[in-house]
Specification:
The structure is a single chain. α9 (247-256) crosses α10 and α10 (258-271) crosses α11 (285-298). The chain has a 9-stranded mixed sheet with strand order 1-2-3-5-4-6-7-8-9, sandwiched between helices. The protein is α/β, with parallel strands linked by helices. The protein has one domain (3-382): Rossmann fold (3-Layer(aba) Sandwich). The chain has helices at residues 15-26, 45-57, 61-69, 114-119, 155-169, 182-193, 220-235, 238-245, 247-256, 258-271, 285-298, 301-304, 306-312, 342-348, 365-368, 370-382; strands spanning 7-8, 73-78, 81-88, 96-101, 132-137, 175-179, 198-203, 328-332, 352-357.
Length: 385
């Protein structure tokens, strides 16, 4: 692909979009809440009211926009759309190319703290020999890799697109990949479908099947996990069912109402983080609102649901009976959505080189525990250089 296909990218949201947002926030109509414990039936009305007030009068979008624009960013025509990505060169004797893959409800903003720790470890007291050249794309259909009317992408499609980005566009014949949430599925799919290109994959969520009947003879650890899985399937998958069956219907509400979008996402910021009931113990209000803003200003929330729809109407990204055989590292954070035991992980990932259990952190590891995650990524790939 010719170099001139790459276009520098800089985020600049029109003032008219921000003014429209302000008017919608001013005109918010909050719902009634049952007389039960806050958060027990969804997002707390009292909490959301405070978050919306800060969004109106305390949050500085232009400051957040400037922080995002501090990274080198590009778009490139690929797979029929314009794919957005950050590309930061490593500062060391031989930086390893590393693909960072976000998930839902995420974006590349999750990597703002993690990314410089990987590209310039010496700046944070590390060894420059551990440096990475980092490529962090927006998943196709997500925020800056979205435009209305474009095609939708399954996890298999995303992995194929990212393989082309890394090799055909940027020129890396071999590279590492890291991911959580859908990003972990993308990295796992890359390990399965493109093993010759993968130096290794590092995950903070395992893409194992979520079937309570998947194992016959259970170890004690597997029994505990299946209890967790059954609770998750009963109490925590409502979002998956609607996003995976009627994504467009939900998109009407969340594309039109910033309060609705904030409620839908902030509930995950609380449930999936290590926060003791208050999401602001794990994430700042600015971090949450910037994540929400990126979906709002791009109108991409409906498109971001598509991997759920594709998964519910197609095969698991790693075909039944298949395995991921490239070197694999895994770090488990205690408030991750699901934490399969190593015995289950090894049924899918046949070459697990590193398995670490962390004392603190949750689903949004790059935001919650960037130092710990960076250290784990460096340690895993160090032996593969």
């Amino acid at each position: 692909m010719p170099d001139n296909a790459l276009r520098p990218f800089k985020l600049s949201v029109p003032e008219s979009v921000l003014e429209d947002l302000r008017q919608r926030l001013l005109n918010t109509r909050l719902p009634d809440e049952p007389p039960l414990d806050p958060w027990s039936t969804g997002t707390s009305v009292a909490y959301l009211k405070k978050l919306l007030a800060y969004w109106l009068d305390g949050y500085d979008w232009r400051a957040q926009e400037a922080q995002l624009n501090a990274f080198r960013q590009f778009t490139v025509p690929l797979a029929g759309i314009d794919v957005h990505f950050i590309h930061e060169e490593g500062k060391g004797p031989n930086p390893m190319p590393l693909l960072l893959c976000h998930g839902w409800p995420g974006s590349v903003m999750e990597f703002q703290k993690l990314l410089p720790m990987l590209t310039d470890p010496a700046r944070f007291g590390g060894d420059p020999a551990d440096a990475f050249s980092v490529i962090a794309p927006s998943l196709p259909g997500y925020v800056f890799s979205f435009k209305p009317g474009q095609r939708r992408f399954s996890i298999e499609d995303i992995a194929e697109t990212f393989a082309a980005l890394m090799t055909d566009v940027i020129g890396y014949q071999r590279f590492g990949a890291q991911g959580g949430d859908w990003g972990a599925f993308v990295a796992s799919r890359l390990g399965f479908a493109f093993p010759d290109r993968m130096i290794g994959i590092h995950l903070n969520l395992l893409a194992v099947r979520r079937d309570p009947k998947m194992v016959d003879a259970l170890t004690p650890e597997e029994k505990v996990f299946l209890e967790q899985l059954n609770h998750f399937l009963k109490e925590e998958t409502g979002y998956q069912w609607i996003q995976g069956t009627r994504p467009t219907t939900l998109a009407f509400a969340l594309t039109d109402s910033p309060a609705g979008l904030a409620a839908w996402l902030s509930e995950k910021f609380r449930t999936w983080t290590d926060c003791d009931g208050n999401p602001e113990n794990a994430l700042t209000r600015d971090e949450m609102l910037t994540g929400i803003m990126l979906y709002w200003v791009t109108g991409a929330i409906g498109s971001s649901f598509w991997p759920y729809y594709a998964r519910m109407h197609g095969p698991w990204p790693i075909p039944a009976g298949s395995t991921v055989d490239v070197p694999t590292g895994y770090v488990e954070f205690p408030k991750e959505i699901l934490r399969p035991p190593r015995s289950m992980g090894e049924r899918m990932y046949t070459d697990i080189r590193r398995w670490t259990v962390m004392p603190k952190g949750g689903h949004f590891a790059a935001l919650e525990q960037p130092e710990a995650l960076a250290a784990e990524i460096r340690a895993f790939f160090r032996a593969l250089r």
